[in-house]
Design goal:
The protein is of the alpha+beta class and about 475 residues long. It is built from 15 helices and 25 strands. The protein has helices at about 5-10, 15-25, 45-60, 75-80, 85-90, 115-125, 170-190, 235-240, 265-275, 300-320, 335-345, 355-360, 380-405, 415-425, 435-445; strands spanning about 30, 40, 65, 75, 95-100, 100-110, 135-145, 155-165, 195-200, 210-220, 225-235, 245, 255, 255-265, 290-295, 325-330, 350-355, 365-370, 375, 410, 430-435, 450-455, 465, 475, 475-480. Helix 10 links the parallel strand 15 (about 290-295) and strand 16. The structure holds one RNA strand of 77 nucleotides.
RNA sequence: CGGGGCAUGGCCUAAUUGGCUAAGGCGCAGCGUUUGGGACGCUGAGAUUCCGAGUUCGAGUCUCGGUGCCCCGACCA
């Protein structure tokens, strides 16, 4: 690591929280804003969100999900309708009390999520079994007035997509909720190169108003958990409250079953935390705003300089034609070391160095961001060579993430052991649990850990054992960890 | 919302413990020299010392009130 980096950016290996704050600002992913707890997503950070949208949106549409837009403001009476839902969100609502220069007779809530505003309208749209399933998604912002905020990971306002579907049977709704969960898992693994846990949430962690919540949990290198996406089986809870009904094939009136599912800009925070290193960000090639950068190393004589730039532009053109998002850096006002460090900090997957040496031998130097591996190739084969590096790096990052997840997941057979782990080298701990909320409360108070998920393949009760916390009967092993 | 800390050009810090025109580094702009792992010289722009009141001959420094930010808890995608 360079002296400069040492001085200005905290080391991830020493203080991940300080490192995270520094890198988000320095790499120009985000900036603080005039509004408490809110942040500005800068172009480099927003580009990652755009790739997220470009990837997920077609998957949704293929499944018949249509995009729509519902209003930002929700009448207070509406959000009050589902009691549990209101209770879950009321501490963090932003409320509009004045408009048009006057105090409003009834207030509006800035949406913390859109179930209520959408479902009153769904009630008008749905009359027959022929209208179902109905699948609506919106890409939007929501506001939740969190007490403690953190760039990307927890901000007062954040961007997300929220999918909302309506089905004739609960079985179909569950299928939908699981399909959304599968999309998220696939997205994280194939695009963000992050190995995640997918499972079911405990009662305590279930979404306000849902019957069942499924979630994606990410293992952060410091052993903490980041809830990376959720998908809910709302059953007929909201349908009853908002009086959504349809006539079935027999002409009988029935309440439908619903789901909602979302993934937010929090995902970008996870991406930073999982892959970054002491030198800065490491972008998985598939979502990297810039996949390759050509760093042109200046020459002394003008003729050589001109030749160099022409050569570099030619390479640039080739890479672009090959579909590789490439930038060319000819900023000779900064030293080479400075430029290299800046690109490394931004996590650009491949750095291509072009100087007089490269031209003379027609041998171009490529450097991979994640392992700093150097390789040589000719101007003829550059595109294929870079493509290959990008593919390999994408795969290697996922493998590394899998390894990290495995190493940070342990099993405990007693509460003492559990506590010892949480107090020393924090991690995910898989333990048999009786699934009683009292246990979970106690564990949280004593160790800060909460249940994260019951992994999908462990839902079928298989074991006959005892709860590590209370000693009562337990049949399934849950993952516990300290949440972000 | 409880407990602790901080507030000085865009950023980091200094200012003899209440004393003269608020200093330096980074960054920024201009010119020139440099360029194979965070270069250098010269010149320049940039400040109501968070806000308000008070004490004093005199306040960045002391007192009171307010505001904002950071860290630690409870809440959370």
């Amino acid at each position: 690591m360079s002296d400069f980096t040492k001085k200005t950016i905290a080391k991830k290996s020493e203080d991940i929280a300080a490192w995270y704050n520094d890198i988000v600002l320095r790499a120009e992913l985000a900036d603080y804003s005039a509004v408490k707890g809110s942040m500005i997503i800068r172009p480099y950070g927003y580009a990652i969100w755009e790739y997220t949208q470009k990837t997920l949106d077609p998957w949704f549409k293929e499944d018949g999900v249509e995009n729509a837009y519902f209003p930002l403001l929700i009448p207070y009476e509406l959000i009050e309708k589902e009691k549990e839902h209101l209770e879950g969100f009321s501490p963090e609502l932003a409320v509009v009390t004045h408009a048009g220069g006057k105090k409003l007779t009834s207030n509006y809530v800035v949406r913390p999520t859109s179930e209520t505003i959408m479902y009153r309208t769904f009630a008008e749209w749905i009359h027959s079994y022929r209208d179902l399933p109905m699948k609506i998604n919106q890409w939007c912002n929501v506001v939740r007035w969190e007490k403690r905020t953190y760039p990307f990971l927890r901000t007062s306002e954040f961007l997300w997509q929220e999918g909302h579907t309506v089905h004739t049977t609960e079985l179909e709704a569950i299928g939908m909720a699981l399909k959304a969960l599968e999309w998220y898992k696939r997205f994280y693994e194939e695009y963000f190169a992050i190995s995640v846990y997918a499972g079911i949430k405990s009662k305590r962690e279930t979404f306000a108003g849902a019957k069942t919540t499924y979630a994606i949990e990410m293992v952060i290198p410091d052993g903490k958990a980041l809830q990376a996406a959720t998908s809910h089986n709302l059953s007929d809870n909201f349908a009853n409250v908002f009086d959504i009904s349809f006539l079935d094939e027999q002409g009988k009136k029935q309440h439908p079953f619903q789901t909602s599912w979302g993934l937010s800009t929090r995902s970008i925070g996870g991406l930073v935390l999982v892959h970054g290193d002491d030198n800065g960000l490491v972008m998985p090639p598939k979502v990297a705003p810039v996949q390759a950068v050509i760093v042109v190393i200046g020459a002394k004589e003008e003729a050589a300089q001109t030749k160099l730039q022409t050569y570099a532009m030619e390479i640039h053109k080739q890479l672009i034609a090959h579909g590789i998002r490439t930038k060319i850096d000819t900023d000779f006002s900064h030293s080479l070391g400075y430029r290299i460090n800046e690109w490394e900090m931004r996590g650009v997957p491949v750095r291509i160095e072009i100087g007089s040496k490269e031209i003379d031998k027609d041998s171009i130097t490529c450097v991979r961001r994640d392992n700093f591996e150097k390789s040589q190739t000719s101007s003829e084969t550059i595109s294929e060579h870079v493509s290959e590096i990008l593919t390999t790096m994408q795969a290697d990052l996922l493998t590394k993430s899998e390894k990290n997840k495995r190493e940070l997941t342990v099993e405990a057979t007693s509460y003492d052991e559990f506590k010892k782990i949480m107090n020393s080298k924090r991690s995910f701990i898989r333990v048999p649990w009786c699934e009683n909320a009292v246990c979970e409360e106690k564990v949280k108070k004593e160790t800060k850990a909460t249940s994260r998920v019951l992994e999908l393949d462990r839902i079928k009760k298989t074991e006959s054992t005892t709860c590590v916390f209370c000693g009562k009967k337990a049949s399934r092993k849950w993952l516990f960890a300290q949440a972000y």
